[in-house]
Amino acid sequence: MHEAVIEWFDSHCHLQDEFVPSAEAAEEGAHANRLTGTIARAAEAGVTRMVCVGTGAGSSSEAVHLVRAMRRPDSVAVAEGVELWATIGLHPHDAVDGVDSLDSLLTAELASGGQVGAARGATAPRGTPERVVVGIGECGLDYHYDHSPRPVQREAFARQIELANRHHLTMVVHTREAWDDTVDILRATGVPERTIIHCFTGGPVEARKCLDLGASLSFSGVVTFKNAEDVREAAALCPLDRLLVETDTPFLTPAPHRGTLNEPSRVPLVGAAIAQVKEVETLELAYVSTQNARDMFAL
Fold this sequence. Notes:
Oligomer: single chain
Number of strands: 8
Order of helices and strands: EHHHEHEHEHEHEHEHEHH
CATH superfamily: Metal-dependent hydrolases
Distance between the termini: 31 Å
Strand order of the largest sheet: 1-2-3-4-5-6-7-8
Number of domains: 1
Structural class: alpha/beta
CATH class: Alpha Beta
Number of helices: 11
């Protein structure tokens, strides 16, 4: 009797930020070796689907480039059965940079013949190789650091919501200490049909607000932190069909590996922690969260 194969979907990582090479590293092959190892460890852990999330014009372009490079037959980092997609977004920290460059990236992607988005109420053919960009984000509001003025953050967020709606793309939302404004702007601008609250760090009250909007919640390694009981309570109440799992690589490494760089191979640790608080089998959590991610990104 064969053991069930557990496959996971990392719904939010930044492989392009961590593994874009410097000129020196590229010449030495260090970048390719590091990326190859990371992808191989992910595949070995059953993490076969990943979305590389942009945080600005540069990282978004790099995410698209990485996905395209990974799809070439001669890619040194390719691993059998592993698929990557990209998003284009402007993080609230960098909202002062403006959204125009993102619109240009999307226009260029459309002009290249790549499939962008999926018709409202429909999904794109699964495994369509030309489909690289599957979402707008991460974008939103961050009132913890206020690296960009709050009015500028709000304007950039609203414009990216409009982009997601215009192109029928998934919305990937970052919110920190800004729950009320996040909800208000989404409602006022029009909540995209597929909206994900990434790295959910609120408690049950915030979870209900987001769920009432129709959004799904994506949980990261924070759910394994000792002081994150409110996040675990939010995960416990989140319906299984509205729950995703992510690493936010290279950040937020789950226990027991805190203090090291995160990577997609740690998704099973996050998933196991969520399965425990939801009192379901890890296999079920893996299956459901993977299916949810595929549906949320219209894959």
